[in-house]
Design a protein that fits this description.
The chain is of the alpha/beta class. The chain is built from 9 helices and 15 strands. The strands form 3 sheets. Strands 2-1-3-4-5 form a 5-stranded parallel β-sheet. The protein has a 5-stranded antiparallel β-sheet with strand order 6-15-14-11-12, with helices on one face. The chain has a 5-stranded antiparallel β-sheet with strand order 7-8-9-10-13, with helices on one face. Helix 6 runs antiparallel to helix 7. The chain is elongated, with a radius of gyration of 34 Å.
Length: 437
């Protein structure tokens, strides 16, 4: 807090329609400058503007020559009450000097509150720095004003131009610092809430009792997005069958992300209720049709149900890329997709054939969304595609990558080939079966 320097100088009000013409100190050029500056918007680096709120601004002891840190004059506007202050409080005002003796606007319950006028000003100007002005014998109320929200306080009978100029600069910088700290704290809190929300929205695989190993990677395409339109899940039903799915809602906005979460939760509930294959996909299509915001929205889906012995799987494709299967005895390859049915939401009464696929004794099965294969290769328009992805996964398997390490390397390589972050959502699920010794 600035140290008061006893020095009294009578200061008239400036930049107020209420001030008398003869009350300003200075020649005609100074008066004309004040009239020109009054109410003008401040540009970047412009002179600081002070709004004085006092019921008798013409008799104010404020000095006229207030200078900022660069030696430029500080503009002063005056208001006799909060109504005038509201009109003069434009975006180019940087600081408010409030006389605490000003009568508060009539509000119920304010009669016994000595800082009611300050609280009204803080509500009126939450983004502005505020200096409280009071008598030197009222130090307790002055200190309380700072606790309530003012950046500093000054004593009316110990005020001079240098002290006030310094106090204005200090108050403005302190307000900026407080605002920056508040935004930082809000950002940290929002990040924490987003992480908690993400943990709640992204699935936890239900694989208790299964020997299969699970890994997943998820990257939303939207900047700062929590989730995208891609979704996945994996559960084991009481008969020992492991069910996995991955899907992609068309579009990239928050509505599509919310629909993806709804479809995932519906899939889990229907699967645990015993539905699978065509019956399950038909019910999911009904859910999509009821929940989508636009009739043009659709969703692709891939589901697999792996037998309790882990050697066979049923595969259903609804307009979705076919999974990739890798085994020690043969290179990674795509599973058949000849019977690929339509995406959900496109054709009423559609059917989705279920294909039986032999997996073998030891294998890795990778489900993915098209964000993994639609990234560009270099600066040209060529995309990675499924063939490029298969070659990439084959090489990474040959290098000994498995599980989380494999998925992390795959997503990073696709991003590097694209020359930067991918614009589409990416979801990848990997299930591994390794025979027990």
């Amino acid at each position: 807090m600035p140290v008061p320097v006893p020095r009294q100088r009578a200061i008239p009000a400036v930049e107020s329609g209420q001030a008398q013409a003869g009350s300003a100190v200075g020649g005609p050029a100074k008066k004309e400058a004040d009239r020109t500056d009054a109410g003008a918007p401040a540009s970047a680096g412009a002179t600081l503007t002070l709004l004085l709120i006092e019921d008798d601004p013409a008799g104010s002891p404020i000095v006229p020559e207030l200078l900022d840190s660069a030696g430029k004059p500080i503009r002063v506007r005056t208001a006799r009450n909060l109504t005038e202050a509201g009109r003069l409080l434009t975006d180019d005002v940087h600081c408010i000097l409030l006389d605490l003796a000003l009568p508060a606007a009539g509000r119920s319950g304010d009669g016994d509150d000595e800082l009611a006028v300050l609280k009204h000003v803080l509500e009126l100007a939450p983004r502005h720095a505020v200096l409280a002005l009071t008598a030197s014998g009222d130090a307790e109320r002055a200190a309380e004003a700072v606790r309530v929200g003012a950046q500093d306080y000054l004593f009316r009978d110990e005020l001079d131009g240098r002290l006030l100029s310094r106090a204005i600069r200090y108050a403005v910088e302190r307000k900026r610092s407080e605002s920056a700290e508040r935004r930082l704290a809000e950002g940290r809190l929002r990040a924490q809430e987003n992480r908690r929300l993400e943990r709640g929205l992204l699935p936890t695989p239900l694989l208790d009792g299964s020997s299969l190993r699970f890994a997943a990677r998820y990257r939303p395409g939207r900047s700062r997005a929590l989730l995208g339109g891609d979704f996945y899940d994996t559960v084991r039903t009481p008969d020992g069958t492991v069910h996995a799915m991955i899907g992609d809602v068309s579009g990239h906005g928050p509505d599509e992300a919310a629909l993806g979460v709804e479809l995932r939760i519906a899939w889990r509930a229907l699967t645990l209720a015993g539905l699978c294959g065509d019956e399950l996909l038909g019910t999911l299509q009904q859910v999509l049709e009821h929940e989508r915001a636009d009739e043009e929205i659709f969703a692709t889906l891939c589901t697999v149900d792996i037998s309790p012995d882990g050697r066979w799987a049923g595969l259903c494709l609804a307009g979705h890329p076919s999974p990739l299967l890798a085994r020690p005895d043969c290179p990674a390859r795509l599973l058949p997709y000849d019977n690929n049915g339509p995406a959900l939401g496109l054709l009423p009464g559609a059917r989705w054939p279920r294909m039986q696929v032999e997996l073998g004794a030891e294998w890795s099965l990778m489900l993915y969304t098209d964000g993994l294969i639609e990234g560009r290769i270099g600066r040209g328009g060529e995309r990675l595609g499924q063939d490029g992805m298969v070659q990439m996964i084959r090489r990474q398997f040959a290098e000994g990558l498995r599980g989380e390490r494999l998925l992390r390397a795959a997503v990073h390589e696709v991003r590097d080939l694209n020359g930067g972050e991918l614009t589409d959502d990416v979801a990848v699920v990997l299930l591994d079966r390794v025979p027990q010794p």
